[in-house]
Structures are given as structure tokens and as C-alpha cells.
Fold this protein.
Amino acid sequence: MIRFFSVAAAATVLAACSSAPLAQVQPIDGVISGHCHIDKVRGAVGLAASASTVERARVDSDSLQVRVIRGDAQSGATASGHADATAGQAQSGGERLTIQTGPYNNITAIHCG
């Protein structure tokens, strides 16, 4: 009887530890318009540029495409000390979201185009 419970407990623990696949990222309203807007994804600046974060930003911005530019932003610093790589960049428009990353794979800037 004890052996049965220990096998059942081990099976439960192993099942809980198995990695579940990530759910597919879907837009809230069910439709991606294809017209980029960054107002809903500004909060991603500073996060790690993982595949899931990049895809979530693409969907939340209503963009059909996403481009990740690796490297360090070379523009001047803002009052907060962060580089303002979006100066002069589009806040909305086009079908592509562009994400710039820093040397440690953190998102440093987001813009359309």
C-alpha cells in the first residue's frame, strides 16, 4: 500500500515539473491591424529581449513584422540616464515594429518602421 502511494506521489511530482509549452500569443481583440502603434509596448523597454517578449511586443503593437537590431544605442542620454534611441523615430505607422537591444540583450528602444 505504501509502495502504491509513493509511486503515485513520484508520478505527480514529475508531472508537475514537466515544462508546459507556451501558449501562442494572441491579440486581445483577436485581430492584428498591421498598423504599428508603440503606446501599448513602451513598458517593454528595459526587459530582456527574449523570443516571447519580442513576439508579445509585436502582437501588442498591432504589427505584422518585427525587426530586432542588436547592439548598443549610440544616441545621447536622457535625463534618466538612458539612451534615447527613439528620437526622430515613428511612434506609429507602417507594419513593422523595430526593437533595439543593448549589449546585454535588454531592450533599449522601440519604434515603428
